Amino acid sequence: MYKLAKEASHMLVDKWNSRLLTPYELNGCLICVQLPNALYGKCQQVTYTQAEVIQNTLYHRFNIEVPVKAIGGHLYVRISAHIYNELREYEELADAVNKLTEEHVLNDTTDLV
Q1: What whole-number distance in Å separates Cα of residue 4 and Cα of residue 11?
Q2: Do residues 76 and 12 lie in contact, with contact meaning Cβ atoms separated by under 8 Å?
Q3: 24: pLDDT strictly greater than 90
Q4: What is the pTM of this model?
Q5: DSSP line for 23-74
Q6: d(Cα 113, Cα 111) in Å, to the nearest integer?
Q7: How far apart are CA 32 and CA 52, in angstroms?
Q8: Which structural domains are found in the chain, ordered by start?
Q9: pLDDT per residue as tens digits for the range 60-80
Q10: Spatial contact of 43 and 107, defined as CB atoms under 8 Å apart
């Protein structure tokens, strides 16, 4: 599980050109990966509301259940790895976020819904 979480988070950081909330050494099977700035970078203030809209959009449009958190002026997904997960699931998350980013360089994340 730790290996998968690390591999998945590396892949997301690379595909989104982003970063982790904390160093790898401090993570276990739960890791927060910053969403691409282009997805929400034009929002004047990053809040729980934007996080909730993105989280709900990922669920309703792509059938992906992942927590999205507003932390320190950035949005993060909190991925977790369990014995039943596969890397392709995290690749689907990466692709869905990239699709949203391409569709919406947002002034306001309410554009997503």
Answers
A1: 10
A2: no
A3: no
A4: 0.88
A5: -GGG-SSEEEEEPPHHHHTT-SS--HHHHHHHHHHHHHHH-----EEEETTE
A6: 6
A7: 15
A8: 2-103 (3.90.1150.10)
A9: 999 999 999 999 999 999 999
A10: yes
Please identify which residue in the block is written with the tokens 């709900």.
56
DSSP 61-94: HH-----EEEETTEEEEEEE--TT--HHHHHHHH
d(CA 90, CA 107): 27
Do 90 and 3 meet the contact criterion of CB atoms below 8 Å apart? no
Tell me the CB-side half-sphere exposure of residue 81, using CA atoms within 13 A: 18
Amino acid of residue 57: T
100: closest CA among 19, 42, 38? 38
- Determine which helix (DSSP H) or strand (DSSP E) holds 101, and give its type and residue range: helix 87-103
